[in-house]
Amino acid sequence: MINKTVKNVHEALTGVKDGMTLMLGGFGLCGIPENCISELVKLEVKNLTCISNNAGVDDFGLGLLLQKKQIKKMISSYVGENDEFERQMLSGELEVDLIPQGTLAERCRAAGAGIPAFFTPAGYGTEIAEGKETREYNEKMYVLEEALHADFSFIKAWKGDAAGNLIFKGTARNFNPMMAMAGKITVAEVEELVEVGKLNPNEIHTPGIFVQRIFQGKDYEKRIEQRTVRPKL
Amino acid sequence: MALDKIGIAKRIAQELQDGWYVNLGIGIPTLVANYIPKGINVEFQSENGILGMGPFPFDGEEDADLINAGKQTVTLLDGASIFDSSLSFAMIRGQHVQLTVLGAMEVAENGDIANWKIPGYMVKGMGGAMDLVASAENIIVAMMHTNKKGESKILKKCTLPLTGVQCVKKVVTDLAFLEITKDGFKLLERAPGVSVEEIQKATEGNLIIEGEIPEMVF
User: Fold this and answer.
1) Most CB atoms closer than 10 Å: which of A94, A129, A149, B164?
2) CB contact under 8 A, A222 and B65
3) What is the side-by-side strand order in the sheet with B207-208?
């Protein structure tokens, strides 16, 4: 067993520098690496390119990095829930690259799978295909999209072990597995770090080979963005 | 009388077929899940990673780790499964999902759709819409026939940046049920009490009217 455990979030983020490209798992506020984001704020690293499906809300998630103006460029599929984001985008302080959600997921997966580029139908005939190679297969048009790599990927899982094996819970899985594959250094924070041998190998979602550092996170807030319920009968 | 949002959702629900996997967009499309015809089984896919999505949870039973693509808390039905974003869009691009229902700002008579960006306004992003419209075999759009100024949103050509080209198959609006054909919008049904003339007046794109146009039946 190769031990990936680090003491804490501080040690986990060793080597993160200004100007780096980071991937952060999560969909909305679900499955985001809360501990790593707090540490990025503390480290005050700047000029970051952040690849994440969304950009958090004003006072949580990636919104915390935006408040401190640590992000130079965001690569996302949907960024609608954040006033500070909107302000920085409209003023030109923040560069934004919007990518179809499935293309974003596949570009991360491709990077981790050794595939430099792939053809997808998403966005053909729209402005996001401008300047990109297109090709026809079986009478349908496709756009060439390239793999997305990151210097660091920050992943949040439910359970993990010292070998870096991960299990996610519910829809907190989302982008985490493919971003784990795409990072030069992948840091996994988990709600519960269990003893090696306790996770059932048949139930592992992300094998430890994709994870370089793992630690047990703490104080998870797990904020709900749109609490929607029905009354009890 | 023109349909309200629930009426549009109810009419779309009648198009559901037994055994279909269905992706519902945010807004009116989400309401379709409330009106599944009796006796058929469909499963709802949420592109953030659920098949077999259930209703909203009871108050107090919500789980931060279980949300839909609109970031709302949801539940899972028996037989549900969870997967990552890459696999989710593999289902969509691979045409394993039989029907996509989504909203639109504009639809053109050739099946082009615009629903993600208005120049000059804050652009929030396309989310999964571009993947969905580029891939689905069967796309039904739920929308209002005209904008607040009364201008048609059923057009010869979209004026807004496109989400996808030549992909929409059917449109259900507050006024009509339309099918996209090679010659334009074929009028299939009228909303109850709405005349063909009213629909024609509200439609900028080519409207094909053949014979008696029946009213929607609920």
Assistant:
1) B164
2) yes
3) B76-82, B50-53, B43-46, B21-24, B99-103, B139-142, B170-172, B176-181, B184-190, B207-208
| H helix intervals, B63-166 | 85-93, 129-135
> What residues pair up with A226 in beta bridges, in sequence order?
B72
What is the token pair recorded at B75? 């539940």
CB contact under 8 A, B56 and A108: no
Identify residue B142 by its one-letter amino acid code.
A
Cα A73 from Cα A211, distance rounded (Å): 25
Q: What is the DSSP letter of A196?
A: T
Q: Give this prediction's pTM.
A: 0.97
Residues of chain B positioned with their CB less than 8 A from the CB of A86: 122
Report the pLDDT averaged over residues A102-129.
98
List the single residue in A with minimal CA-CA distance to B63.
Answer: A224
Q: How would residue B163 be classed by pLDDT, with cut points 50, 70 and 90?
A: very high
Q: Which residues of B touch A225 (CB under 8 A)?
A: 67, 71
**ipTM of the modeled complex:** 0.96
Q: Which residue of A has its CA nearest to B122?
A: A86
Buried b (16+ CB within 10 A) or exposed e, A126-142: bebbeeeeeeeeeeebb
Question: Quick one: pLDDT at residue A231?
Answer: 87
